[in-house]
Write a structure and sequence with these properties.
The protein is α/β, with parallel strands linked by helices. The chain has a single domain (2-122), classed as Rossmann fold (3-Layer(aba) Sandwich), CATH 3.40.50.2300. Helices cover 46% and strands 22% of the residues. The protein has helices spanning 11-24, 36-43, 63-74, 89-98, 110-122, and strands at residues 2-7, 27-33, 52-56, 80-84, 102-105. The chain has a 5-stranded parallel sheet, sandwiched between helices. The radius of gyration is 13 Å and the shape is globular. 33% of the residues are buried.
């Protein structure tokens, strides 16, 4: 069973995205966190059991990039998809340098997000 860790501080968006990913990709379980500290608590017990991490770059206090760095140290082989609502090219570049495999806008179509998730999960 393929699993994802989804870290997004907006609960409605997080829950909707989790439902879409579980319905339209090979991911069958999405563990959710609303903050960097919550993601850290959850990711320990999930070590080795997550096939994808989806991170909101716009977490409070700029924690999205820090979370990617933390996750890369803990799980270097797990693909990371970063989502952002910002058009800040430097933020996107920083996420890629830190270890995100892909950066998408939250304004991207659901089909595009699902396609990228499927590619990252299935290789």
């Amino acid at each position: 069973m393929k699993r994802a860790l989804l870290v997004e501080d907006h609960a409605v968006f997080r829950e909707a995205l989790a439902a879409v990913l579980e319905e339209h990709t090979d991911l069958k379980k999405t563990v959710q966190a609303g903050s960097f500290p919550e993601a850290r608590r959850i990711s320990g017990p999930l070590s080795g059991e997550v096939d994808l991490v989806v991170v909101d770059l716009d977490l409070p206090n700029g924690e999205g990039i820090s979370l990617i760095d933390y996750l890369r140290e803990a799980e270097p082989d797990v693909p990371v998809l970063a989502l952002t609502n910002a058009r800040n090219l430097e933020q996107r570049a920083s996420a890629l340098r830190t270890g995100a495999d892909e950066v998408l806008s939250t304004a991207s179509s659901i089909e595009k997000i699902v396609g990228v998730v499927q590619r990252l999960v299935c290789g």
